[in-house]
Design a protein that fits this description.
An eight-stranded parallel beta sheet has the order 8-7-6-5-4-1-10-9, with helices on one face. A two-stranded antiparallel sheet has the order 2-3. About 40% of the residues lie in helices and about 15% in strands. It is α/β, with parallel strands linked by helices. The protein starts with 10 loop residues before the first strand and ends in a 6-residue tail after the last helix. The protein has a single domain, classed as Dihydropteroate synthase-like (TIM Barrel, Alpha-Beta Barrel). The chain is built from nine helices and ten strands. Helix 8 packs parallel to helix 9. Strand 5, helix 3 and strand 6 form a beta-alpha-beta unit.
Length: about 290
């Protein structure tokens, strides 16, 4: 399966959260004086060694429905992520002659952050708002030619809790079609675009399973699909009664979803546990690879 993005096989996108409040690993790199950028860089390099082909570096937690999670200013995001991206670009460049090239991605809704990240070495923008938060995001992507992930999100709140929808796939996939057209109308090339259905973002438990069951329909749109199932709450429904709901248990479920999604044509798998995700893709490849 070849695409103009250069992404031609299932691959792992490793998560490097440079935040104090991300749902899974927020605060891991925080110190009393701020962010330990060097520790973030070493973590990114470790994820590459474990099998990540893309590193997604974010300075703002996107789960705004959780108590205490608030939007982060562009300046603060830049302060968090740019030193990490710059350091990773330099360190990865030192081994580029022998290792496959790693794509650095910035997880942001803000064009100013994306521009600073691109200047530091990022080649992908992972925009959870699909370009709707910042009207300057699409012109930036068009101007720079970088890859851009368009994600579907419903904002969850106590006043608007997630509700299962029978037509969830039509709603989500239709929205991504609309945003794809808006992106291309803004000058972004077809081969720059990736699509993410946004598992867990304002969806009810059953919504996520319906999307996964029909993910091949999104693949058929002809853009690489990014899947972020990793450690999401809906995976806890698979954990046997009496077994603690831990990240280790959710990582096991994530690996199973990763392998099945790869067989349905999903190319980019955004995970926290890179080694288990890479192992799932290796099993899939040994058993015949992508069925598409």
């Amino acid at each position: 399966m070849a695409t103009g993005t250069g992404i031609v096989r299932p691959m792992i996108m490793g998560v490097v959260n440079v935040t104090p409040d991300s749902f899974s690993d927020g605060g891991r790199f925080s110190t009393s004086s701020g962010i330990d950028h060097q520790a973030c860089i070493e973590q990114g390099l470790s994820l590459v060694q474990q099998g990540a082909s893309i590193l997604d570096i974010g300075g703002e937690a996107s789960s705004f429905h959780r108590p205490g999670v608030v939007p982060v200013s562009a300046d603060q995001q830049i302060h968090r992520v740019v030193p990490v991206i710059k350091g990773l670009a330099m360190r990865l460049g030192e081994v580029a002659k022998t290792d496959p090239e790693v794509i650095l991605s910035v997880d942001t809704r803000c064009s100013a952050v994306a521009q600073a990240a691109i200047s530091a070495g990022a080649r992908m923008i992972n925009d959870t708002s699909a370009g709707e938060h910042d009207p300057d995001m699409f012109p930036l992507a068009a101007r720079t030619g970088c890859l851009v992930v368009l994600m579907h999100m419903w904002m969850e709140s106590p006043q608007h809790p997630p509700m299962a929808r029978e037509n969830i796939c039509a709603d989500v996939f239709g929205y991504l079609q609309q945003r794809t057209k808006a992106a291309m109308d803004a000058g972004i090339a077809h081969d720059q675009i990736l699509l993410d259905p946004g598992l867990g973002f304002g969806k009810a438990m059953e919504d996520n399973w319906r999307i996964l069951s029909h993910i091949d329909q999104l693949v058929e749109y002809g853009f690489p699909v990014v899947l972020g199932a990793s450690r999401k709450r809906f995976l806890s429904t698979l954990i046997p009664n009496g077994t603690p709901d831990t990240w280790e248990q959710r990582d096991m479920a994530t690996a199973l979803v990763t392998g099945l999604a790869a067989r349905r044509g999903v190319l980019v798998h955004r995970v926290h546990n890179v080694s288990s995700g890479a192992m799932a893709l290796a099993v899939n490849a040994r058993c015949g690879g992508c069925s598409k």
